[in-house]
Amino acid sequence: MRILVIKTGETELLVDSPKEAISLGEAFRSGVILSRLLKRHRIFWVGPEALKSLWPHHPHLTILSADALWPDADAVINLERVGRWAVRASRVPAKGFFLDSDSCWKTRPCVGALEEMLKDPALRRMNRRPHPFWLFALCGLKWRGERYWSYRRLERTRKKPLVGFNFRVGKRWPEKAWPLSRWKELEEELEVFGFEISWQPQGSIEGYREWIRELDAVVSSDSLGLHLAIGMGVPAVGLFAPTFKQEVPKYGLGIWLDDPRGMCHEPARVCRALRSLIKKRYYLNGDAS
Known about the structure:
The chain is of the alpha/beta class. Helices cover 29% and strands 18% of the residues. Helix 7 (180-192) crosses helix 10 (267-281).
């Protein structure tokens, strides 16, 4: 089949920020469904141009801009709660989100628990299912632990583990930022234990992708960098507060920390988590032990 998927990052699957901005991390991680769909279908994905750099090339995958003409498709999966996409998706057999006669967002096939969370965001605190579970359900499928559609990490042999500080956050969730002073405290603590530190660079999306691929581990808030890291197989310590750690799958690669006070994580706690992660996976007898 030829399937058109709409996921631009304009909205998030379980909750929305009041800030109007594209969430590239949301669009990227939604690509987890490609791990299943590309086995049998030709996929056209309406989403950010940057996905062409973040997702590996596949002959049956085409990324389309938001204003591109739609190719002929047998079905549409609409993963955005945006009116214009719902109207366009209604012209062909569609799954995902749609507007009912009362202009309320519903799901097809019906995912009742997801609809309830959208009506009452407080229910999200009780959610114990990760993001891919709900995403596959919207497609009429069952998540079987599929990983993100992503490049894989570059294996390196180093005397000292190289840790990346993914310290920037997007415009949609500025409250995800961990204070710069705490990043600097963490740097000082890790250097005592023999770690090398690499701060998130500026530049192209390709350069950002390759920076993460070459790391031995990364520290990040719940953002694109965290999803890229676990997609590529890079061990990660994730810092959570405004979003919920149970919604991000670890794939056996991460330690997620949250703090009920907000982004007030103590650098010493982050340091301990990172040392445990690195020791367990790569440096059993090295400097990080």
